[in-house]
What does this fold into?
Amino acid sequence: MEWESPLYREALLQFERVAEIAGLDANIRERLRTPQRALVVTFPFRRDDYGSVDTVFGYRVQHLLTMGPTKGGIRFAADVNLGEVAALAMLMTWKCAIVGLPFGGAKGGVRVNPNELSRAEMQRLTRRYTMEIINFIGPDKDIPAPDLGTNEDVMAWIMDTYSTHVGHTEPAVVTGKPPAVGGSVARREATGRGLVSLLPSTAAHVGLPVEGATVAVQGFGNVGKYAALAATQLGCKVVAVSDITGAIHNDSGFDVEKLMSWTTENRGIKGFPDSDEIDPADLLTLDVDVLIPAAVGNVITEHNVDDIRAKVIMEGANGPISSAADQTLSEGGVFIVPDILANAGGVTVSYFEWVQDLQNYFWSESEIVGRLREIMNRAFQEVLETATTHGTDMRTAALIKGISRVTQAKLARGVYP
Ligand code: GLU
It folds into this structure.
């Protein structure tokens, strides 16, 4: 199959399992297994010496066009491939449906290591990638956003390239932009904040006091950083954090604001005062109340699952737990808030950003944060109810909810012609 990759196989297995439980219509089942559209491009960009030109692969996959435009991030990573992007596009479909956004799922990627590029190279690469996919995206077609290895600057360059090409400023073509060019306030913090807004309900469900709960966060990027900050604001103790420079630990809990300033000044958490350095792999197996994997996919697998001691895992990253490990953890009584629910705050505020751009009317931070919290917690309660009704874990319940919503829309629309 075109999409063959470990992640796609997992996404499909998960889908088939839930389709069975939900008694999904056979025609719909067949239709949802594969993305509706996929674009593969190769394109060149100039390195800073001007003479060297690198050619790279780029992708944009749209899984489902039924719900409205498609939505999802663009990742820059050295190992991105079509199968990975296709799997993540499918997960975006479920994610948007779970929180009730009028989007189908999409995802894009460029196979390049962003850490090896200068800012100018990043910009040229982004602009050329945008040109390659320009007919595929648009405010009412497909709206990209940040993901692994991309950020606000990259979104601003996409917006600028698209706008230049169509001849007028079109902020609604991407979300996660800087506020100066139509980005939404609180978008940057949205994934981490949205995730932590589920912590009180999660803790109440498992009988854990929020005040003083110990938290370990893997990854101190856009998701991990703001999740850690929001957790301390709730009275939790963030006792361990990691990023690409290493992992640090402090039993009494970090001052996350100080750690954030340190990270900006020192390009990483390494060397932060009053902390012990630990092996980054050991962060995942610490005896904490809440573990937040917020870096990359597939970090909890059959190799370390037996050592996991956290009571609750809230998935900030997409796909941090392999399906084998997921089963072991659930059977062992670990309460997992799955990625498609836990990290849906990002795309939810992306939705707010898109709406604000289309209307040229911008909301206050408190309106955004209030609506985000409301949407996230409503989705959480609905998923929890589904889990109770069907006797399943939260991931299965979230998928049942997402897939059912999409199915209703597909049945209502019917088949053309
Ligand atoms: N890349 C993020 C995700 O995986 C955000 C997508 C968006 O905001 O469209 O959910």
Notes: The chain has 15 helices and twelve strands. The two ends are 27 Å apart (CA to CA). The chain has two domains: 6-170, 190-342.
